[in-house]
From TrEMBL:
Belongs to the short-chain dehydrogenases/reductases (SDR) family. PROSITE patterns: ADH_SHORT (PS00061). Residues 6-189 form the Ketoreductase domain. Gene3D superfamilies: NAD(P)-binding Rossmann-like Domain. Coiled coil: none annotated. One of its GO terms (molecular function) is oxidoreductase activity. NCBIfam families: PRK07231.1 (NF005559). InterPro entries: KR_dom, NAD(P)-bd_dom_sf, Sc_DH/Rdtase_CS, SDR_fam. Keywords: NAD, Oxidoreductase. This is NAD(P)-dependent dehydrogenase (Short-subunit alcohol dehydrogenase family).
Amino acid sequence: MRLEGKTAIVTGGAKGIGLAICRRLAADGARVMIVDIDEAAGSAAAESLAADGSVRFIAADVSERLDVHNLVARTIDAFGPISILVNNAGIVHAADFLDIEEADFDRVLKVNLKSAFLCGQAVARHMVAQVGAGNKPGVIINMSSINDTFAIANQVPYSVSKGGVSQLTKVMALSLATHGIRVNAIGPGSIMTDMLASIAHNKEAKTRILSRTPLGRIGDPSEIASIASFLASDDASYITGQTIYADGGRLPLNYTVPVKDD
């Protein structure tokens, strides 16, 4: 198991892509701390993934500095030095540009972007100290989106936040390279999570998605988890400052593609 002996923190890990990443990292041998604001889902996820205590749950708001410092300290107490951080927590808020409220704009950026800064800085400081103590450098993975490049008119703060995450990834990677800490991002396209399920079961909406997806299908959370596992491993030892897009070919597309009827 390529992540055996490593400790990982996954924010927003109770559901969807985050849960799939927790599942994959645990299967690859890592001890995993699931972090989420949903206590019921987080506790259930930890129990379902490991009965031996190698996967645990902490309820925390990762957009709040004190919560972040607490979860880092509790993870170290539970599992020892942190090797992997996956900044996955994220929310959306739909509203046209002329209508969106300042509070909603701030809320999305706080969860999607500020939390990656807060968690990244807190964990990176710990990782730097661990390198100084003779341990191997760690890995940080941020969850971006194809919407760091594309934009959706009624997803103003989400698109802005993901553009920020991709730039934050580059800045962190350059700043932490001298310590051997690698920082990369993943940019998913349309992935079958609870958030997308209601759209995907609407034929017209699904056709719109597939018409801009050359591979002709919606992605699975496990496919994003596979990328996270790769980036967290020594197989990606010379990759830093990059965003890997898993979008079924959407980013290079300059037209729509035919969609097969089900």
